[in-house]
């Protein structure tokens, strides 16, 4: 999306308004788009509509949410410790970054306290083997007492 002399500046409200205007048009809200365009004077902005791909607002928001999700998953050194945790869009838009980081930490703590599938399978196998040994011992004792 090219704007004259704005390509390296921060995102302006005019650009956001243009993206909203385009979204309304693309979604079939023509009356709302017309009203919004008139009230915001977005049609006077120097943006070439041919340079703005369809779905730009949604794409922009999705990328922002993905960035926020990634930011919540990295530690102070910029590393992801352990598993990467997905965060729902609802959680992303209703919590600040500190709350999101705390959610990730809480989820990691729950995972650490929960036995892994492998250790659970190993425990069940050991229990089965222990029962089998006890059963075999009882059988051997019974057979030994019959012989004697």
Automatic annotation (TrEMBL):
Q: Which Pfam families match?
A: LisH (PF08513)
> What is a single cellular component term in the Gene Ontology annotation?
histone deacetylase complex
Q: Where is this region: Disordered?
A: 105-148
Q: Where is the composition biased (Basic and acidic residues)?
A: 105-114, 126-148
The record's annotation in Gene3D superfamilies points to:
1.20.960.30
Localization recorded for this chain is: Nucleus
Per the record, the GO terms for biological process are:
regulation of transcription by RNA polymerase II
Q: Which UniProt keywords apply?
A: Nucleus, Repeat, WD repeat
Query: Which GO molecular-function terms appear in the entry?
Result: transcription corepressor activity
Name of the protein in its database record: LisH domain-containing protein
């Amino acid at each position: 999306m090219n704007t004259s002399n704005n390509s390296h500046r921060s995102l302006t409200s005019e650009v956001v308004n243009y993206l909203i205007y385009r979204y309304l048009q693309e979604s079939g809200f023509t009356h709302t788009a017309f009203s919004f365009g008139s009230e915001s004077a977005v049609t006077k902005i120097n943006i070439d509509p041919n340079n703005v791909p369809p779905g730009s607002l949604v794409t922009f928001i999705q990328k922002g949410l993905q960035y926020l999700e990634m930011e919540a998953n990295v530690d102070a050194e910029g590393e992801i410790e352990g598993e990467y945790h997905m965060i729902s869009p609802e959680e992303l838009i209703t919590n600040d970054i500190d709350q999101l980081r705390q959610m990730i930490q809480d989820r990691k703590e729950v995972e650490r306290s929960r036995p892994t599938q492998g250790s659970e399978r190993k425990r069940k196998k050991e229990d089965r083997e222990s029962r089998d040994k006890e059963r075999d011992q009882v059988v051997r004792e019974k057979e030994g007492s019959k012989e004697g």
